[in-house]
Amino acid sequence: xxxxxxxxxxxxxxxxxxxxxxxxxxxxxxxxxxxxxxxxxxxxxxxxxxxxxxxxxxxxxxxxxxxxxxxxxxxxxxxxxxxxxxxxxxxxxxxxxxxxxxxxxxxxxxxxxxxxxxxxxxxxxxxxxxxxxxxxxxxxxxxxxxxxxxxxxxxxxxxxxxxxxxxxxxxxxxxxxxxx
Amino acid sequence: xxxxxxxxxxxxxxxxxxxxxxxxxxxxxxxxxxxxxxxxxxxxxxxxxxxxxxxxxxxxxxxxxxxxxxxxxxxxxxxxxxxxxxxxxxxxxxxxxxxxxxxxxxxxxxxxxxxxxxxxxxxxxxxxxxxxxxxxxxxxxxxxxxxxxxxxxxxxxxxxxxxxxxxxxxxxxxxxxxxxxxxxxxxxxxxxxxxxxxxxxxxxxxxxxxxxxxxxxxxxxxxxxxxxxxxxxxxxxxxxxxxxxxxxxxxxxxxxxxxxxxxxxxxxxxxxxxxxxxxxxxxxxxxxxxxxxxxxxxxxxxxxxxxxxxxxxxxxxxxxxxxxxxxxxxxxxxxxxxxxxxxxxxxxxxxxxxxxxxxxxxxxxxxxxxxxxxxxxxxxxxxxxxxxxxxxxxxxxxxxxxxxxxxxxxxxxxxxxxxxxxxxxxxxxxxxxxxxxxxxxxxxxxxxxxxxxxxxxxxxxxxxxxxxxxxxxxxxxxxxxxxxxxxxxxxxxxxxxxxxxxxxxxxxxxxxxxxxxxxxxxxxxxxxxxxxxxxxxxxxxxxxxxxxxxxxxxxxxxxxxxxxxxxxxxxxxxxxxxxxxxxxxxxxxxxxxxxxxxxxxxxxxxxxxxxxxxxxxxxxxxxxxxxxxxxxxxxxxxxxxxxxxxxxxxxxxxxxxxxxxxxxxxxxxxxxxxxxxxxxxxxxxxxxxxxxxxxxxxxxxxxxxxxxxxxxxxxxxxxxxxxxxxxxxxxxxxxxxxxxxxxxxxxxxxxxxxxxxxxxxxxxxxxxxxxxxx
Lengths: 180, 774
Ligand code: SF4
Ligand code: FES
Ligand code: FES
What we know:
The complex is a heterodimer. Chain A is α+β, with helices and mostly antiparallel strands. Chain A folds into two domains: 17-89, no CATH class; 101-177, Glutaredoxin. Chain A has helices at 23-33, 45-54, 66-76, 80-89, 109-113, 116-127, 169-178; strands at residues 101-106, 140-145, 157-159, 162-164. In chain A, a hairpin with a 2-residue loop joins strand 3 (157-159) and strand 4. The relative contact order of chain A is 0.11. Chain B contains 23 helices and 33 strands. A seven-stranded mixed beta sheet of chain B has the order 14-13-24-23-22-15-16. In chain B, strands 32-27-31-28-30-29-33 form a seven-stranded mixed beta sheet. A five-stranded mixed beta sheet of chain B has the order 2-1-5-3-4, sandwiched between helices. Helix content of chain B is 27%, strand content 18%. The interface between A and B is medium-sized, with 19 and 26 residues. The complex binds iron/sulfur cluster (SF4) and FE2/S2 (inorganic) cluster (FES) (2 copies). One FE2/S2 (inorganic) cluster binds at residues 106, 108-111, 147-151, 154, 156 of chain A.
């Protein structure tokens, strides 16, 4: 039987878990841990990374630092590499600093057919950055993403937890102006 | 497999019997039908990610991966139908998309699974014209070189780490085109089995760092041998070019090393060409070392020993390496006995010789059965580092659910979950006594202590366990109360109906015990012959500053002797200080011989490489010495004759852990503010290992150099990490080591290894130490 079938864990749980994160983040991770059999703490990994990334109580809101990853490993008794693997696999985990507003523009097939190229170039012109970059003032990050399942409203982007559909350059201006 | 439980399948028109549920690839392998594969490995979990093993199965419209397809009765498989071949070619084409065409500069070239399979299934031209990806190569330590652009993402190395080495260090980070194998945060692999990924990696992504760019596979010849650094006796292939060993690979032997090899056995060959290799006989004349010819050196040795002996054979003592071959040990014993000396020993790192010794200590059962135990109690040992492949078997048992309990004077870094009962070197003995008391022992030390509940519970489980084992190891043997520890362990095992096992020293500890390389009637043991200095000594395969339990005492006694004759493969400052004649000894890979491994299996080997310089196999040196000293019965022409005579003498003697426990033994280690724990580090066990640069560069070797003490003690004494600390022990010179606070060491103890540079000045492995800032 392989290691994928067995709960992954370090040989010896490390002490000091109560020093990690904030009580709120710990409670959130614990809520996820409780959903799975006790030895499968590993199953809470993705949710734990989300909780840590989203919390803006730390000094790096919106992204996961090396220390964050190691702390999650420590908290869940996982070998750190197991956390790195997951965090680097999914594109929604940010491993480098991002701007306050992360604009995720879909350029997948439906959006492209409906004009996402124009949306991208408009955004790039307006913000003065390329896809994958962050404005100098740290306000905006522009990110290219694959289909977000909102093809019916293509072209679209996502900022924070909000979807914006049927975009036009004017509509983009309006939306960006509405952000703080 | 009983008749009812076998099914019949058809592969390429051949009817094959198989167990239901077996994987197709295993059934085909057993029948000699080859299916190409990369990710599949019989010792690792199935991941089915390379898709190279696709075959056609009747009634299934798509090709199936043979490595994860269980067989069914009546299944009809074709491995070479047009559909199968097309699928295999497709998989090959995908694998080659990103694989660089750098075979001419790749160490794997000529023995690469990808090359081989590409020859059979690849196309001669590539349809892929786009850019290939390039991956940066992380530094993962002194043993394994990386070239990850070549990686085909089979994940064998990742599964090896998680499942066999037990430390998940390598992983696959990133996704799709960006997936890379590595440690993500660059660090060296810390496993003692890390070198196995070199064999596992089907391509040249992970290769041997010490062997890098040395030779091509087809330039080398392969010779078999037995690894000489622990009692496992791993079976190895030596690969040589122009009579020089350039690398060592494991040879499959399920009963011994399976398909694995410890890093120690894999890389120690480097020592064969060490700068301080002894190439010519040396004789000390007027305090000066002179290189000389064999004849004069042997005459000097014979004369020196004869003079030191005078007319009392017991003025001589023999200290023989437990890693010397049966042939060498036999002749050395014959020589010493012929000279009338009963002072002979191979238990050089043992501290206490009180009590009746086990007849022929050994593991107590087959190596392979270690993994079937339900409960293993380990007293004074770290099998993971002492005998890495025994550690691996015990880990397997633990992974299957066995309980493993350690009694040690310090906490170990383990790769599985186990209970560790840690106490300082004195209380440690009492802990074991406590368990003995729980087992119903009522005499001696046991009387004074109160038994705790967890000891009672452990004993109950030990008694209830179907397969239980009590193992006693090197750290216990080095303790001044080993006699007591051994006696307590035996009583516990006896009362619980558990098996008793000893993790014997060296590659041939069992052979040495079988031969009786121990004091004869009235003879002195390894400690006594140094505590009561002799006039002459014979040293075989040892470096007295490193291979004795109490180097200070040992060097002192040797210093005073009139004549010390050493057979050694290497020069060393200590040897040159104390010896009078040093005869260059062929190392194990250079000489024919026989080892009895820790489970009592006799394994013979031939010399794979010619001895360096003028070095000669030990049996030849001892033969001539015997003849020169006019002792009869030294007329051997081949090592086989020596072996046959030695085996004849053994008769049907077999390993036997039986002995008469002596309940009256007292605890002798006095209480002290700080007691030393003299561990034997993994890469210090013998002169060869200590001279392999790659092994010495590992974290295991480097960490062993520190003086470690509990952070509380460090605080109390005002020491911080990095402080230079002067260590003094009674009857020893002072030595300086760097401090490292370490919670693994209990309070009142100082972990300071034996057999490390600087430790030659020190006395016994345990006992009182005083520390002060240098
Ligand atoms: S480095 Fe080698 S063993 Fe590891 S995944 Fe890549 S090809 Fe497989
Ligand atoms: S393609 Fe853009 S949301 Fe589906
Ligand atoms: S060997 Fe079957 S998929 Fe890799």
